[in-house]
Each structure stands twice: as structure tokens, then as C-alpha cells.
Amino acid sequence: MNISHVIAGLTAILGVDGVTADPERMAAYLNEPRKRFHVPAVAVARPGSVAEVQALCRWANENRVPLIPQGGNTGLVGAQVPVRGDEVIVSLQRLDKVREVNAAGGHMTLEAGVILQHAHEVAEAAGAMFPLWIASQGSARIGGVLSSNAGGVQVLAFGNARELCLGVEAVLADGRLYQGLNALKKDNTGYDLKDLLIGAEGTLGIITAATLKLFPKPQAHETALCSVAGPEQALELFYLMRERTGSRLTAFELMPRFGIDLQLKHGMLARDPTAGPSPWYALIEVNRMRGGISGALEAGLEEALERGIITDANVAQAETERAQMWAAREQMSDVQSREGASIKHDISVPVAAVPRLIAEGSAAVERVIPGIRPCPFGHLGDGNIHFNFTQPAGADAKAFMARETDVNAAIYEIIGRLGGSVSAEHGIGQLKTALLTKVKDPIALEMMRAVKLALDPNGILNPGKLLG
Ligand SMILES: Cc1cc2nc3c(=O)[nH]c(=O)nc-3n(C[C@H](O)[C@H](O)[C@H](O)COP(=O)(O)OP(=O)(O)OC[C@H]3O[C@@H](n4cnc5c(N)ncnc54)[C@H](O)[C@@H]3O)c2cc1C
Predict the structure, then answer these.
(1) Strands (E), 257-383
(2) Any ligand 1 atom below 6 A from CB of 145
(3) Is the pTM of this model over 0.90?
């Protein structure tokens, strides 16, 4: 179908206001955070109701027009932007209604276009908490968060997006509506179709709404930034704090001094939030519920200090201090772009293998590019490290990036040996499709392809992504 026929078809379903092919207006839907993918789209479609999404899919399926579902366009693997140039982006932004909030019952039902930050506010206004925190929460939307099975800093206690979702409503490739919204904690009636759609990166259906879990709001947070000699000590601290605080331990993040120094150098931190220079830090947060006993964090830290696991710690005394500690963590990735080019990996290994991953990975990559500056940080408590490397000081950025494949190979070899995953939370998208076919179990790939073929036989939903 040629471009003018596609636009005429879309306009017939959505009206002139629901479609744009103007390059300037499409830019916001095409410019993705990593600035790696630059293929244009034919148009952006903006359905305003579930019925319009259904009509759009029915028409696209009949006419073999490829569709890319899109939420907040914050994905980091190019799953939400074109790979071929003949795709229509389907923005779910207009489906942004809050359908139901039941704080006492522990659930809320939101449409796919609700911004994650708004979901937090809705939960909070009802006296509850929706515990999925990611740095992009001001833009990421519920449909995108579920389709990429987002993680973030509280997975340790509450799980990733998949574990926070009770049911979804989704439009299938041929326009049929899967009505899977429910608030059931237990439902043993066969295959878990919700879990297929979550993390599918828009390749199996377009999520239009979801029922999400709500939790009681904590009364307070106890937060500390601890100085540790290395990842080994950080792991020991994690084990200790988990034992002392159990499920109240909501975050355990690892950061290297290098990343703090960069933030100070580039003016991203007003002051150093740490207790002083140390090669590594662990950012720990423990929730306190109403009537709960305070001081569990400090008691654990005292023991850690006595046993020589930590060398020092800053415990946040006010919300502003807590915010500064979290800013230092959230800005870790961003600051690297201010320092030059960087090569990034979102990977996971069993928690106990994190120190080996960091030691062996840093050494292996140093052999590939002498002088490269490792900046591994992230969710130690989940075994998920953002293993990033900044270019050697003063190096040529282009020449550095030309070695990306060699650096990746060194890291993925270690991941394979340690029984890890090449994508912990950001997904596959178009960035890692070729890699997935190399590292995933062949039977698993066959099963995934069979599911795709059954639900989208004409391959109109996000072609070229995930399975390629
Ligand atoms: C600064 C920053 C920090 C980040 N931090 C984290 C983090 O800590 N943890 C983490 O996991 N991720 C993180 N991310 C990645 C990103 O924010 C998440 O993947 C987020 O969940 C994507 O949501 P989105 O609405 O922007 O989705 P998009 O980017 O629009 O889309 C992502 C995927 O979902 C699909 N999709 C979107 N909407 C739908 C729908 N309604 N139905 C079906 N498919 C759909 C798209 O086709 C695409 O495959 C970060 C990104 C940035 C820029």
C-alpha cells in the first residue's frame, strides 16, 4: 500500500486530528533517548478509544500495514521506533483514563496511556502506593512500562512490572479485544496470557488497559549511602541487611566513586552526598510502616561497621538528603554522556556472581581498550548491573564507539559463563535482536516464534523487533 493510501486509511478511522504525517510533528515520536535509531515512520496514529484501536488493527491487518505501539517513547532498545521505514507508530497517549481505584482491595485499573508518575499520584491520593520507580517515570506510560516489563529500584521488594500486574486488556493484531482485566491474586485457569503480553514489546497485541497492584504506603523511609571497599563488601552488606530487615529492604544499589566524581565535575550534584571518598558505595533504603519499629537500618549499619563490611555511612536525616542520595544514583547514566562516548550494557547475573562479573568484566574490557573507564552501577540486590564504560580520557569518541562490538563480546562471554541474561530490564527491541538469536535457547526461540505466529500471523505488530 502506498503512503497516501495508508494516510487516507488511517484518517478514515481516526479523523484528521488522529493522524499526522508531518515530519516536524512526528519528531517527538521518533527521537528516542539513546539517539541511536533514525529510521522514519509513514505516520503517527493517535487513537482516542479502545474501539478506535480495534478498528485500526483490523484495517492494518487486512492491508498488511505494520504498526508500532508506543507509550512515552522512553525505551532504550529502539523497540518503540521504526526499523524498516514503512511502519505506522500507534501512540496510546490519548488512552489515559483512570478506570478504577480500590486502595483497600489493593488494585487500580488504568488505561495504557496513563503516565507512570500520574499512576503514583493516583495511588497516593487514595492512600496507597504503586511501587514501580524508574528515572523515566515522568514520561513512561503504563502500556510501555508493561510491554517492556520495566524494573527499576524497588524490584527487590515488589518485583518488576510483570509481578505488579493482575490483568490486562489488549487489542490483538486482527482487532479482537482480549478482556483480561481482573483483580484476582489467584487464577489457575490455564496459560497466563497476561504474562505473554507483558514484556512482549508490542509484538503480540496492543495493551489498552491494565489492573495493577496497590500496596500500603510506608510511613517513612530509612535511607543510607554506605562506603564500601568493593563489590564483594557490598554483597556482604546486602546479605546482612536482607537478614536484618527482610521484605522492608526495598532498594540496594551499587555505585562507583568514579560516577560520583563525574557528577561533581559536571555540576550535576550541588554537594557530595557520600560520607567521604571511597572506591564504591551502596545506597540502601528500608521502608517503615505505620506502627513499625524504627532504626532497623542504623542497627544493621552499626553491625556492618563493627564487622568491617563498611568503612563509613551517611544516613539521610531529612527528605532533602534522601533526594540528593537518589539523585546521585539516578544521574549515573546521564553523566556519562557529558564525559564523552560510552558503551552500555543492561545485564543480570545471579546476585552472588555480581562481584565476579564486575571484576572479570572490567579486566576483560581493559584488555580490549586500555584506559577505558568502567562505570558499573545499579541494582545489586537484583543481580542487575548497568555495566557501562566511558571512553578513555581524551580519546576520539568515534574511534571508541567503533570498538563497541568487541567490548560487547567481552561482556557477553562472561554473562554466558556466569549464567546471566543479556537484557535484565530494558528488553531486546531492535538493539539486541541478533544477539538474542545467538544466546537464547533454540527451543525457547521456537516456542516464542510459534506464539508470535499464532497471535499475529501476518506479522503486522512491531515487525523486526524482539524476534527480528
Ligand atoms: C532516563 C531513563 C531511565 C530509565 N530507567 C529504567 C529503569 O530503571 N528500569 C527499566 O526497566 N527501564 C528504564 N528505562 C527504560 C524505559 O523508560 C522503560 O522501558 C519504560 O518502561 C518504557 O515505557 P514507555 O511508555 O516510554 O514505552 P515506549 O518506549 O513507548 O515503548 C516501549 C516498548 O513497549 C511497546 N509498547 C508501548 N506501549 C504499548 C502498548 N500500549 N501496548 C503494547 N506495546 C506497547 C513499544 O512498542 C516498545 O516495544 C529508562 C529510560 C530512561 C530514558
Answers:
(1) 280-288, 312-315, 342-343, 346-348, 373-379
(2) yes
(3) yes
